Amino acid sequence: MNDTLIKVEGVSKKFCRSLKRSLWYGMRDLGNELIGRRHSRDGELRRDEFWAVKDVSFELKRGECLGLIGRNGAGKTTLLRMLNGLIKPDSGSIEMRGRVGALIALGAGFNPILTGRENIYVNASVIGVSKEEIEEKIKAIVDFAEIGDFIDMPVQNYSSGMTVRLGFSIATLLQPDILILDEVLAVGDAAFRYKCYRHMDQLLKNSAVIFVSHDMPNIGRISSSTLLLSKGEIAFLGDTLDGIEAYRELNNDPLSSNHDKIVTTYPPVKDVSIVGLPNEQQFSSKFSAEIIIDSEAHVGHCTLRFNVTDLSGNYVASCVVNSDEYNIKINRGKNHWRIGFSSLPLKADRYMLRATFTDSRGAIIALWHNGHQIRVTGGHLGIVSNCQLDLCSWNTL
Fold first, then answer.
1. pLDDT tens digit string along 127-167?
2. How far is CA 140 from the centre of its chain?
3. How far is the C-alpha of 18 from the C-alpha of 45, rounded, in Å?
4. Kindly report the CA angle at 281 between 276 and 283, in degrees rounded to 5?
5. DSSP H helical segments within 131-228, as ranges?
6. Could you tell me the domains of the chain?
7. ω into residue 268 within 30 of 0, thus cis?
8. Bridge partners, 295 (sequence order)
9. Strand 262-265 with 100-103, pairing
10. Which residues contact 313 (CB under 8 A, 6 or more apart)?
């Protein structure tokens, strides 16, 4: 289904830094509205005013997920509040088709003195869900939130994790056409986030999702496109990976620039290199590479550890090949080792590769890692499992 569920055209919103002037401007604008007069000329800022969002336009269809990224204060939450109807834009138009589920602030929409069960009914009725439909799904909501023992306790006594569990469950399990999420998954524990990602994978088949996060691996895992805001304006709109690159460059992230390979060797190894790695890699596709080690002496009973990390240094895939299994050894001279990955199930992002050789005592004799060699252009939701490595051949020239 390719129907457009969200259409935003030239949306702008301005705020005032001075509270007194803000109240005066508000009263004057309200009076102008009552007599049918425009607030001010388009693009005009009054004293102490600034653009929180300026001239933002995009469309989102069913089955698409837009990753909304940018620094704190870039205008992301203001844009979400306009999309959710909490505030009005000063100019432009917003069209939202279908049922909207939103979680744009922790605990937003919850009455703290009501129980979790009562808040489910209240929140569901606000977005137009009938009582019969709520009755059918309330057990699934409670089970997904994993707060069954506390569902009849006032929400004001919930922890932040319990609150976000309940809020996410209500927003997603009522099968909205449009889902808006603002940094809410950052509060949940790892197991719950994993369950949320799997659920969103199913939800994306029939919904349009706007997902806000400062965690670029999560943006790469979920989003089909990205919108980068900077000082309220669009700095980038398009491919997810290119958007992540633009975000890192905008924030002067040292990881945004490519690095040359780094090689560290210890006697008797003189040099190590890996050739044949692809610059771009499709999800689950196979590839092979060649490891070349130049050694001044024989080294028996070696172990190779091949790790894939994200740009934050977190391990996302790894494999270990040891002498007990493959009789790995390094002879004097140049040694060539051809390896092949039968699958590398990574989400869309860039990755660093690291190969470490250790001797029988566990001491490192060679260490190699590249800058940003592999750029994965396809991916899926969920946590990455270990990659599979096939030993092709090992010989000495």
1. 778 888 888 888 988 998 888 889 999 999 988 888 888 88
2. 26
3. 13
4. 140
5. 131-145, 160-173, 190-203, 216-222
6. 4-256 (3.40.50.300), 262-396 (2.70.50.60)
7. yes
8. 269, 333
9. unpaired
10. 352
